[in-house]
Design brief:
Structural class: mainly alpha
Distance between the termini: 53 Å
Radius of gyration: 21 Å
Oligomer: single chain
Strand content: under 5%
Number of helices: 10
Helix content: 55-70%
Length: 305
């Protein structure tokens, strides 16, 4: 491989995705008028129909998750997009013999609908996996730690989550030859719908709950109570949970949220130093938790022998 080939590969897999990622970051921040409108709309719903009327609009959790918003957008734009491209390249180079060609011959509308349904099912599946695999849960627990869930809690994700999620979702899509839907309207809906149901809004969306995830059903998913654990994994559509018997059917419950772990570095104040330091401590938390579980297994194994 020549130097020119290496430079081309870097541009193709990192430079262009990075520029595209930065464009996405700018589109999903205060530089976008739609962003401002959507934030005001959700905040208004929180004031009109709050689950917890005592939760402040700009609570400690909201301000902390605003920091995660910036971190998440930067990581999504600078790393996750490039990783997805590298992953697709790997699949096309080494798993090409698995590719299903027949899908490409379907009408565009069917491919679009199929792409949405398959992508959402894979999103449901990777969410289920992160709850069932102990090490993955330690990473996902950062997202579940929020006790004042709000629209930006949707971006409180450890950077390792992006790697896990992209691997589980991108590989099957590439092998099946289905591209993730690229229509802007669907991407905007997907982004803001997940922010809507993370907000402090008391609603189950009426009959729409049989199709879509709701603020009530997702609050149950974030519940700190043991009886609600491992329920409601849906990302956009709720029918996957009904199909696989993981739907919690009580439509009236709005439990407290968070995780049962006193060692988790939960945010408690709004000082600038805290807003910077606490996310860093939360990023380190999964590795400490995984290390502790390994040590327990090692020492328990020695005692047993």
């Amino acid at each position: 491989m020549s130097v020119a080939d290496i430079i081309f590969w870097i541009k193709e897999h990192f430079y262009w995705p990075l520029l595209h990622g930065m464009e996405s970051v700018l589109q999903d921040t205060i530089f976008s008028s739609f962003f401002i409108f959507a934030v005001i709309f959700i905040l208004l719903l929180e004031r009109l129909y709050p689950v917890n009327p005592q939760q402040k609009t700009f609570s400690v959790g909201f301000l902390q998750d605003s920091v995660w918003l910036v971190l998440g957008l930067l990581f999504e734009g600078l790393v996750a997009a490039a990783y997805s491209k590298v992953l697709r390249g790997f699949c096309q180079a080494h798993l090409n013999f698995f590719t299903v060609e027949a899908v490409g011959g379907l009408p565009e509308t069917l491919r679009f609908i199929g792409g949405i349904l398959l992508t959402d099912f894979l999103a449901w599946f990777q969410h289920w996996v992160k709850h069932k695999v102990p090490w993955f849960w330690q990473i996902h627990a950062v997202h579940h730690s929020q006790r004042e869930i709000n629209m930006f809690t949707d971006l409180r994700f450890h950077f390792m989550e992006y790697i896990i999620s992209r691997t589980i979702v991108v590989v099957p899509l590439t092998v099946l030859g289905i591209e993730t839907p690229k229509i802007a309207a669907w991407a905007v809906f997907n982004t803001w719908f997940t922010r809507l149901y993370h907000a402090n809004i008391k609603s189950n969306l009426g009959f729409l709950r049989y199709i879509f995830v709701t603020p009530q059903s997702h609050r149950v998913h974030h519940s700190i109570e043991q009886r609600h654990q491992d329920k409601n994994f849906g990302v956009i559509f709720s029918f996957w949970d009904r199909i696989f018997k993981t739907q919690h059917e009580n439509c009236e419950e709005y439990p407290e949220t968070g995780i049962v772990d006193d060692s988790f570095p939960l945010e408690k104040e709004t000082s600038l130093l805290s807003l910077i330091i606490v996310p860093l401590r939360q990023l380190i938390y999964p590795f400490i938790a995984i290390g502790r579980s390994l040590l327990r297994k090692i020492f328990h194994g020695k005692k047993s022998s």
